[in-house]
C-alpha cells in the first residue's frame, strides 16, 4: 500500500480534471488553503532563496511558492504531473520540474535548498518513501535551511480504526518521522498532529525539520491540533459569506430581473471570458449564455482545463483585434480584477465583471463601450 510505484500508477491514471483544486474544497478554495491554511504555518520561512517541493502534482501550491524564491525545483514520481507543471509554468524562468523514482533527490545539488516543502502528497506514502527522502535532505539543505512536510500518521491510529479512515493514507507516523530525522543527520523540531477527513482520528502530521547542526535543532515540540477541521469549516463559512461566485449564482437564481438585465447587456455581442482559473471553473456551468473564447496570460494549463468545454484559450493580445461594439468581456478573476479591468478600460472594450464587487442592482451602472 502507498509505495512509490503505486503512487506513480495512481496519479498517472488520475483524471486531474480540476488540476488538484478539488482537494482544496475543505478550505473552500485553493487560494484560501494557501492564505488561511498554509501561509500562517510557513510564513516564517518565506521568502527563501531556493525552494524544493516534493510531489507538486499539478502545481496547486507551486503557484504560490514560485514568487517566494529565486530558484525552484519540483520533484515528482509521476511523469504526467511533471509535464503538466512544465507547461503550466513554462514562462517562469527560475522553475525546474524533474521526474524521479519516488525517493531520489539526485537532481538536487548538495547544500542548495533553503526551504523543502510538501503538502497533501506524502500523506499517501509509506514509511520507506519518507525515509528515502529524509536520508538525503541533510545533504541537500543549505546551512540554515528548513523543511516542512505533510505526511501520514496512520500508524498512530488504533489498528481497529484504521480501516475506517479516508484519504488513502500511507503506513507512516509522527514518531517514525522523528526517528528517521535523527538517523539521517536531521532534527525534527515541531510536529502538528491533525485530523483530516476521518472525524477526530489524528491521521495526519505536519513536521518541521532542520539539519542536526542547526542552532534550532532542539527537542521536538509536539502539538495535537484537534481543531484543524474547525479551521477548515470556518474558512468555508467566511468564503460562503463573501464569495463572488455564491453572490453571482444567488442573484441569477433569486432575481429574474438581474438575469434579464445581464442578457440585455450582452444582446447582439459575442461574449469573451478573461481568466480560465478556479473562479471560471466555479462559474462556467451557471452562465446563462455561451462564451465565444477565453483569454488568459497563462495559457498552457488553461488550455487543458478548457479543452473539455470546447473553448479555445488565447493570449489577451487577441482582444486588440476585436471591435469594442461587437464584444462583451467577462472577467473571471477576483485577485487580478482591477489589473485586468484597467487594461480593458484603456483598450476601450466593454466590460461586464462588476458582479465581483458590486451587488446585482448596480449592474445597470456597468461600463459600456466608449
Molecular structure report:
With 370 residues, the protein is of the alpha/beta class. Helices cover 35% and strands 20% of the residues. An eight-stranded mixed sheet has the order 3-2-1-4-5-7-6-8, sandwiched between helices. Strand 2, helix 4 and strand 3 form a beta-alpha-beta unit. Helix 9 packs across helix 10. The C terminus is likely disordered.
Radius of gyration, taken over Cα atoms and rounded to an integer in Å: 23 Å
Q: What profile does the largest beta sheet have?
A: 8 strands, mixed
N-to-C series of helices and strands: HHEHEHEEHEHHEEEHHHEHEHEEH
Helix content: 25-40%
What is the beta-strand fraction? 15-25%
Summarize the structure.
The protein is an alpha/beta fold and 370 residues long.
Map the helices and strands.
Elements: H1 4-13, H2 30-42, E1 48-54, H3 62-65, E2 69-76, H4 79-88, E3 95-99, E4 113-118, H5 127-140, E5 141-152, H6 159-162, H7 174-183, E6 186-194, E7 204-211, E8 221-224, H8 228-242, H9 244-254, H10 256-266, E9 270-274, H11 278-283, E10 293-295, H12 299-307, E11 313-314, E12 327-331, H13 337-347
Parallel strand pairs: 1-2, 1-4, 2-3, 4-5, 6-8, 9-10, 9-12, 10-11
Antiparallel strand pairs: 5-7, 6-7
Helix pairs in contact: 2-8, 4-12, 5-7, 9-10
Descriptors:
alpha/beta; eight-stranded mixed beta sheet; four-stranded parallel beta sheet; 35% helix
Amino acid at each position: 500500500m502507498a509505495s512509490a510505484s503505486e503512487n506513480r500508477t495512481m496519479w498517472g491514471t488520475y483524471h486531474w480534471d480540476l488540476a488538484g483544486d478539488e482537494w482544496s474544497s475543505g478550505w473552500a478554495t485553493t487560494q484560501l488553503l494557501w492564505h488561511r491554511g498554509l501561509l500562517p504555518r510557513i510564513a516564517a520561512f518565506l521568502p527563501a532563496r531556493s525552494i524544493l517541493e516534493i510531489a507538486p502534482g499539478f502545481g496547486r501550491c507551486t503557484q504560490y511558492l514560485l514568487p517566494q524564491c529565486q530558484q525552484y525545483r519540483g520533484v515528482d514520481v509521476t511523469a504526467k504531473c511533471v509535464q503538466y507543471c512544465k507547461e503550466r509554468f513554462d514562462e517562469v524562468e527560475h522553475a525546474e520540474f524533474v521526474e524521479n523514482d519516488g525517493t531520489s533527490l539526485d537532481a538536487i545539488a548538495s547544500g542548495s535548498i533553503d526551504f523543502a516543502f510538501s503538502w497533501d502528497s506524502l500523506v499517501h506514502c509509506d514509511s520507506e518513501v519518507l525515509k528515502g527522502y529524509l536520508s538525503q535532505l541533510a545533504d541537500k539543505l543549505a546551512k540554515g535551511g528548513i523543511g516542512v512536510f505533510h505526511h501520514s500518521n496512520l500508524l498512530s491510529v488504533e489498528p481497529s480504526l484504521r480501516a475506517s479512515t479516508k484519504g488513502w493514507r500511507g503506513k507512516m507516523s509522527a514518531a517514525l518521522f522523528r526517528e528517521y530525522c535523527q538517523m539521517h543527520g536531521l532534527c525534527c523540531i515541531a510536529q502538528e498532529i491533525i485530523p483530516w477527513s476521518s472525524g477526530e482520528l489524528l491521521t495526519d502530521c505536519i513536521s518541521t525539520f532542520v539539519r542536526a547542526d542547526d542552532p534550532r535543532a532542539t527537542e521536538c515540540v509536539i502539538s495535537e491540533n484537534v481543531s484543524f477541521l474547525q479551521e477548515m469549516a470556518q474558512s468555508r463559512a467566511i468564503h460562503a459569506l463573501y464569495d463572488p461566485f455564491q453572490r453571482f449564482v444567488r442573484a441569477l437564481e433569486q432575481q429574474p430581473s438581474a438575469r434579464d438585465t445581464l442578457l440585455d447587456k450582452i444582446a447582439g455581442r459575442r461574449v469573451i471570458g478573461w481568466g480560465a482559473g478556479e473562479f471560471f471553473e466555479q462559474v462556467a456551468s451557471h452562465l446563462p449564455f455561451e462564451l465565444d473564447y477565453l483569454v488568459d496570460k497563462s495559457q498552457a494549463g488553461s488550455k487543458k482545463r478548457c479543452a473539455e468545454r470546447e473553448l479555445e484559450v488565447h493570449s489577451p493580445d487577441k482582444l486588440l483585434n476585436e471591435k469594442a461594439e461587437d464584444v462583451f468581456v467577462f472577467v473571471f478573476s477576483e485577485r487580478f480584477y482591477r489589473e485586468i479591468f484597467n487594461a480593458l478600460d484603456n483598450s476601450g472594450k466593454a466590460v461586464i465583471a462588476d458582479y465581483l464587487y458590486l451587488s446585482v442592482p448596480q449592474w445597470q451602472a456597468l461600463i459600456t463601450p466608449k
